[in-house]
Amino acid sequence: SDRRNWNAAKDLQRYRRCYPDLIEAENQEEEEMWNLSFYKNELAFKPHGLHIESLLESWWDNYEVLEENHSYIQWLFPLREHGMNCLARPLTCQEIQAFKKSKEVMQRFVRAYQLMLRFYGIILIDEETGELKRAENWAERFQNLNRFSHNNLRITRILKCLGEMGYEHYQVHLVKFFLTETLVKETLPNVKRSALDYFLFTIRSKWDRRELVYYAWQHFRPQSSFVWGPRTKLLKYRPCSNKSELHQKAEDKQETPGKNDDSVEKDLNQSLEEQKGEDAADLQSKVNDEDVKEKLNDCILKGGGDEEEKEASFTQQEKDLNRETEEVQGTAENDCTKESKKRKLDTDMADTKASGLLKSPTDIENISRNLGECAI
């Protein structure tokens, strides 16, 4: 279907807004923090589970157990909402803060993330940035991922938990990885809808999320059927970041090793050309303004004749310019209209020059100010 999953959209909006309707007990005792106790290796996951150290060591390459056991995932990646395992406890805000204060706990959390990435055929190559690449056995693991759709739910849980624990940069890389594999390389067709409906909208950062939506739109075929962002805004959008938006896209192109994305490079070059064109247009506009002012000054300096006639003629000229200014300020004009106004002013100034109407410094200041407003 080309229609967006609006139930997913509402669920993820609630997550991104930090569950505004959720009320938690205050002053929770550490003894009641089951998720924290599990990560401290004090408690085995339930039912019939292991302590986390045993799980991380003995299940590292045990893909069959990781696939068939459905109890551990809610303990490894707890959320502030209930899941299918009724013996798992929802995560609390106090637990999140306690997690972040413990270096030992956060190290185990990253190891748990690496365990699941390996299960999906992915390797974390930089713990600092969160950069990812395919594992050597990616083809086998991708086949499993395409076959068992419940793993899409697990990945959504992992992404949400990464955001809760302060690993938003890990989120961005993981979502970008799946968008690349589903839309560009087309190796995970059965993950495509989940990547667009769920994975993409776990990103809490509005700027990162917009860039990823734009990236997805670029590679979605046909583009006319893309329903995860307004087409009018996507056509006008330019990726933005605290650096240069265009350079950020060039960096994004290198995030996934082995990625062959010619279209991103073409879009980058096109955006650069558009930006150069706009800069040139702005510069030309400034030059045109300076030319008009220079012509005005020339005609003022060369003016002469009878003073009374000059005063009467200048008053009429000032009224005409004020009328032109009001018309320009009253409506949003395009470039062609602005140029037409400038040519009209040039003609008027040339007439003034021929009849020698302007003389005093006050006259020069007034006419320059009005002309400046018209040019703007």
Q: Sheet with the most strands?
A: 2 strands, antiparallel
Number of beta-strand segments: 2
Overall outline:
globular
Strand residues, percent? under 5%
Mean pLDDT comes to 78
SSE pattern, N- to C-terminal: HHHHHHHEEHHHHHHHHHHH
Strand order of the largest sheet: 1-2
What does this structure look like?
The chain is an all-alpha fold and 376 residues long. The chain has a domain of 192 residues. The chain is built from 18 helices and two strands. Strands 1-2 form a two-stranded antiparallel ribbon. Helix 10 packs parallel to helix 12, helix 16 packs antiparallel against helix 17 and helix 16 runs parallel beside helix 18. The longest helix has 40 residues. The C terminus is likely disordered. This is Opioid growth factor receptor. GO terms for molecular function: opioid growth factor receptor activity. Keywords: Receptor. Belongs to the opioid growth factor receptor family.
Protein traits:
376 residues; mainly alpha; two-stranded antiparallel ribbon; 2 strands; 2% strand; globular; disordered C terminus; OGFr; opioid growth factor receptor activity
Short overview:
The chain is mostly helical and 376 residues long. Helices cover 63% and strands 2% of the residues.
Helices and strands in order:
Layout: H1 6-16, H2 34-39, H3 52-58, H4 63-68, H5 73-76, H6 93-101, H7 103-119, E1 122-124, E2 132-134, H8 138-147, H9 150-164, H10 168-184, H11 192-197, H12 206-219, H13 231-236, H14 245-252, H15 262-301, H16 307-330, H17 335-355, H18 361-375
Antiparallel strand pairs: 1-2
Helix pairs in contact: 9-10, 10-12, 14-15, 15-17, 15-18, 16-17, 16-18
